[in-house]
Amino acid sequence: MTAAAERTTTDVLVVAREQVLERGVGLDEAQVLQVLRLPDERMEELLGLAHEVRMKWCGPEVEVEGIISLKTGGCPEDCHFCSQSGRFPTPVRSAWLDIPGLVKAAEQTRATGATEFCIVAAVRGPDARLLSQVREGIKAIRESGNDIQIACSLGMLTQEQVDELVAMGVHRYNHNLETARSHFPQVVTTHTWEERWDTLRMVRDAGMEVCSGGIIGMGETDEQRAEFAVQLAELEPDEVPMNFLIPQPGTPYADYEPIEGRDALRVVAAFRLALPRTMLRFAGGRELTLGDLGAEQGMLGGVNAIIVGNYLTNLGRPAQRDLDMLSDLKMPIKALSESL
Amino acid sequence: MFCVHCGNPVAEGGHTGCDSPRTALEPPRFCAECARRMVVQVTPVGWTARCSRHGELSSGADLHPTA
Asked: Which residue intervals define the domain Radical SAM core in the entry (chain A) (predicted)?
């Protein structure tokens, strides 16, 4: 076999072009690992292919979302990356957002052109008080005339709570698996990866859209990044948010170094090749890890959704800067009519 | 005056970690007047930070008014 012929049959990007781009079949774990180990000089080729895959299987639109913390801090869980855990000496104090504040945040989000507004609470799972606040908040948002799609992220759910959220009109539920199953016990000890998985299956079975992703840069290996990608593919989520660790003071990961931008882009592209039809969203940490240029490269390397504005406890860059970026890249913002 | 990111006196120094790309993405957490931890609410377009003694700041405010 000639060298050129051998490359055609074994090179992972050549294989991906036929398997993922042409047939829409995501890469398996071993293939994702090969992608993650591609040398820097093949990054341009990798990002280009990931972009082609996104354009073919998802289209040019970008879904824009805003998020808000309804209940901040004081969480009983010990997610090692999180400044909202009550178990670590972080500077974050507990806070509840009132209904007028929630309505205002939804208005601010809609004004950016976003079609998605995610209400988030730092809890193990919602209690009656929190669900009541969510119910009243959604009612008030609708009464204000805001037609934005509403998602929630309230931790682990019971079947009854899933049904309540469906009845409230919540169309998508976020619950991140956070990392590979094999790495999860190093990140969280107060609950299991499988408990999160169970909530996500209930959400899917109840007819809500499933949103689940994680954080890159929590000490996981390349093998575990590949493992995580295929575990997410097995879940078949509608959306995968990709966060990059922002080391938070007071947490066990306070002294971790943010990952290199090129590694973040490599992960983005690899996840796109594992999840060709899934909405892949830039979320927290991109400002620190990638900066402005890297964000553009990511949008041209497989990403087709974005959180604009601030996050839950950290600040993002101004929403307008992201909207300008999308305009410069000639990527249309998904309209609300396409979401409904 | 106290550092809004770590709560230690500004004059003591040792704030290299408080002037970093990461803290540029952080709202103030400690009151500059008394170093109390503040109740902070981040919203899609801004933030508010409330000290039980010295009141509320919001995004756009001068975090070091006497510096």
From this structure: 60-286
